[in-house]
Amino acid sequence: MSKSEEFAPVTETEVAHEFDELDVDDVPQVGIVMGSKSDLPVMERAGEELEERGIRYELRVMSAHRDPETVADYAKNARLRGLRVIIAGAGLSAALPGVVAAHTDLPVIGVPLTSKTSVAGGLDALLAVSQMPPGVPVAAVGVDSPKNAAVLAARILNA
Fold first, then answer.
1. For the chain, which residues score pLDDT lower than 50?
2. Considering the domain boundaries, does residue 5 fall inside one?
3. Can you tell me the distance from the alpha carbon of 156 to that of 69, in angstroms, rounded to the nearest whole number?
């Protein structure tokens, strides 16, 4: 291969063909994240509601405390991957929704979750999700209410 062939410019048509195989209809619009696998049975209800509405989503488990870099990377790259809303469920200190919101400009909906060590039936998580500092907004739904988070996400997408 000659030097001119090796570094021949790529035409716009060639670049367009590279994207032909990507199916935009398969790209999730909503990310559902939770701090622990034990949150999955509750948080799956958000996915079920989104499915009923024909909204594509992805489900991930990531801890704001145990692996903050993973959470930051997920949030920073969410828009690039096609997400438009993130639903974040967490219990106890419920840091996950706030950490996600600190690293993205997408709407973040926090779902406070109860656990066997929750204070006052999940009040600890509710306060943590709802009491965010200025500039780091997180919408909060009721304790253990991922279905409402999904409904809110659908409304945001349709706004």
1. 1-13, 15-16, 18-19
2. no
3. 27
Answer yes or no: pTM beyond 0.90: no
- Which DSSP string corresponds to 23-70? -GGGS-SEEEEES-GGGHHHHHHHHHHHHHTT--EEEEE--TTT-HHH
Our separate counts of H helices and E strands in the chain read 7, 5
From CA 143, how far away is CA 145, in angstroms rounded? Answer: 5
Angle at Cα 49 formed by Cα 48 and Cα 53, nearest 5°?
Answer: 115
Q: With DSSP H G I counted as helix, E B as strand and the rest as coil, what are the percentages for the chain, rounded to 5?
A: 45, 15, 40
Position 7 scores a pLDDT of 46
Q: Which two tokens stand for residue 34?
A: 């939770």
Predicted local confidence at residue 98, as pLDDT: 97
How far apart (Å, rounded) are the C-alpha atoms in residues 63 and 94?
10
The domain that contains 78 carries what CATH number? Answer: 3.40.50.1970
The token pair at 140 is 């909060």
Q: Tell me the two tokens of residue 50.
A: 């989104």
The identity of residue 146, as a single letter, is P
- Total domains present in the chain: 1
